[in-house]
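cron nightly-structures :: item 1 of 1
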Amino acid sequence: MIRVTKTEEPSKTVVTIDGQLSGESVGLVETCCKEAESDGKPVYLFLRDVTAIDDGGQLLLRHLARNGVRVSGRGVYTSYVVEAWTTTNNRRSSPMDADDGVNRLRGKAPSS
């Protein structure tokens, strides 16, 4: 099961994923990101409460990152996955960053 939320902001579009990025949900996320890209604004994909990512999900995330989608994750699992891909891929071709929350995506400093 997956929940995909798209938030339009003046300077970017944030696509938030909760649940499992696997099976049929991979196509749903891909479609949502393609629609967001068609607006011409930068797209940020936020893996908020992702519990599992299968091989198809990993391939999609790498593809999206190579094509300029900014990918970030919250939580131990997703932060680890994003960090692992960040350090093993060339940063210019894979703009993925581990993140602690959506505020960073929105350009806000985390509160202390």
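cron nightly-structures :: done
Helices lie at 25-37, 55-66, 76-88, 102-105.
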